[in-house]
Structures are given as structure tokens and as C-alpha cells.
Amino acid sequence: MAEHSDVVDRIDSLMKRRRSFVAKTASSNESVSTPLPASDDNDLPVLTEVVSAEAAVSEVSPDRFDETQVSLLASDIAHAIGQQLTYELPTLLEATLLNAGEELRAGITSTMETALRDFIARRKQLRLPLDEPNPN
């Protein structure tokens, strides 16, 4: 319920600001502004408020980071990544080496089988002097 009353108070304050500019008379085209009583809503911008260009440029945008904040953030990220790699790199390397070893063994076995098949096929095609002639 407190939020509700806060919202209502803010709306009332904005409506009072809007009503502060009224015309003098029906015959005059000039406008007069009456000062508002001091309230804690002075930080709200009003459309009739004049802001100099220097003041608008000199204000620091909350979206921009300070260079020291950026360097601290980069340092923290690098430290976190370094710690994670320190913990996980040995396991990753071991798994990679095991997989590479298995692939190497499979490749060597396949190459040796192919070479032996080719050798046996050529041996059957050619009659080499190492073969003993059949006496019959």
C-alpha cells in the first residue's frame, strides 16, 4: 500500500507542476509562471526548463565506464578464466591425448593391414624364387 501512496504523491506533484503555467488574461497572449512550493521532486525535468549545452555535455552518462573500472573488470575476467583453465586444462589434455593415442593406434593398425593385404596379393600374383617348385 505504501507503493500506491508514493505513486499517487508523485502524480499529484507532476500535475501541480503542469498547472503552474497559466495564461494571464484572455486578451493577453503572454504566459506567466508562478513559483512552486519547494518539494523533494525538484529533480524531475520540466519541459520549460532551459539547460545549457555545456551543462548537458559535462554530465557523465551512467552508461559510460571509467577506464579504471574497465581495467579492473578485464583483470577480474582474466583471473577467473585463468583459474578455470588451471583446474580443467589437465583433464582436457589427458582426454585429448587418450583420444589421439587411440586414433593413432587405429590408423597404424589400418595402414599395416592394408600393407599386408597388398603384399599377400602381390605375392600370389608373382611366383617368386622363394617358392619351392612342386615335384609333381
From TrEMBL:
Residues 22-43 are annotated as: Disordered. It comes from the Bacteria. Residues 25-36 have a biased composition (Polar residues). This is Uncharacterized protein. It comes from Candidatus Propionivibrio dominans.
